[in-house]
Specification:
alpha+beta, conserved putative lor/sdh protein from methanococcus maripaludis s2 fold, Elongation Factor Tu (Ef-tu), domain 3, OB fold (Dihydrolipoamide Acetyltransferase, E2P), 3 domains, six-stranded antiparallel β-barrel, 4 helices
């Protein structure tokens, strides 16, 4: 009997604990549900900093790399072989059109010119004498024609002698900057061998290629800006002068050229040029990069609307330095969260704090 009584008492105790556990669980769940309801309706607002989109003049541009070259550049060669007698210029020197650069020994050609001039004078006198006799019917027509032919050959000989003399001097065909000159007086140069280069650096040209989809948008006169490692932080402006009339079949790209004024000759041929071609300009809005949130393929911001955070998807465009263009999703009157958005969810209550905004913009 005592054993049965102990069993019954133990069973009752177990039931009591089980009932207490069920009741406690229900009470806990009820408390969590009540707490969840409080979060949705009565939670504390998050302090956030906000900013408004800024009106911006935006450039629709395409970037490419290119190489600078002078607008005019030629390799200078001698038209005749000969020994150098004078080099009155130096490498890198600025010269005017017609300036003497290299002089070859011209003693033989000068003597040949003097002889040709004497022959011409003799032939002219003989022709004039026979012409007078022909007018008096004393000289035959054949003698007159022979004298005329001799005079023509003498005139041709003097032209050749003068050309040979000119070939003994290498002169500048236009004003420009000389390249390296390694020729020294006393050296012998062959005809057709380059002795230096002359470049007109009053303006330089940049040649670059852009994808063929821009063909219809590239026009002469459009602004193009370049930077080069030689002058960090500086930008040089030029204008498009050429749009190639065909597409490169290998690269499916379009060649364009632009001319850049270079009055101080700071830019030279061969320089690397990072180029930006401005295709169009228009008005838009931009927001600080710190306000933009990206998750996978989605880009969004939080707007403040009626005291709550509203998640808003946006379409971004061109980078504007510390700002980024927003093409769709925002207007100039919106208030965009720039600081504190990492603690927000869609619909969360917020309170705007100017101090937080300044911290976000610093």
């Amino acid at each position: 009997m005592t054993r049965v009584l102990k069993f019954v008492i133990s069973f009752i105790v177990v039931l009591a604990f089980a009932a207490g556990g069920v009741f406690g669980t229900q009470l806990l769940l009820s408390s969590e549900e009540a707490g969840s309801g409080d979060v949705g309706s009565g939670r504390q607002p998050t302090r956030v900093g906000v900013t408004s989109p800024q009106a911006q003049t935006i450039e629709d541009a395409v970037s490419a790399v290119g190489t600078l070259r002078p607008v005019r550049s030629v390799e200078l060669v001698s038209n005749a072989p000969g020994r150098v007698t004078s080099v009155p210029v130096a490498s890198g020197q600025q010269v005017e059109e017609g300036a003497l650069l290299i002089q070859l020994d011209d003693r033989a050609t000068r003597a040949a010119l003097v002889e040709a001039e004497a022959t011409l004078s003799e032939a002219r006198q003989n022709f004039e004498r026979i012409e007078q006799l022909a007018d008096s019917n004393v000289a035959a027509d054949a003698s007159l024609e022979q004298a005329r032919a001799t005079l023509s050959r003498a005139e041709a000989a003097i032209m050749t002698a003068r050309a040979d003399l000119d070939d003994r001097a290498i002169t500048a065909p236009f004003a420009g900057t000389l390249g390296v000159i390694d020729t020294e007086p006393g050296s012998f140069i062959q005809s057709g061998v380059p002795v230096t280069k002359l470049s007109d650096l009053s303006a330089v040209e940049v040649s670059l290629s852009v994808p063929e989809r821009y063909y219809d948008r590239v026009q002469q006169g459009q602004a193009l800006f370049i930077t080069t490692p030689a002058y960090p932080g500086e930008s040089f402006e030029g204008r498009v002068t050429l749009r190639a009339p065909e597409i490169n079949l290998g690269s499916r790209s379009l060649e364009i050229r632009a001319e850049i004024d270079n009055p101080d000759r700071r830019l030279v041929g061969g320089m690397f040029a990072n180029s930006r071609l401005v295709l169009d300009t228009y008005q838009g809005i931009g927001i600080p990069d710190d306000a933009i949130i990206s998750e996978g393929l989605t880009t969004y911001v939080y707007r403040v609307e009626d005291g709550n955070a509203e998640r808003t998807e946006i379409e971004i465009g061109t980078s504007l330095g510390a700002l980024t263009e927003v093409r769709e999703g925002l207007s100039a009157d919106d208030r965009v969260v720039i600081a504190g958005w990492d603690q927000l969810s869609d619909g969360a209550p917020v309170v705007i704090d100017e101090n937080v905004a300044r911290e976000g913009l610093e």
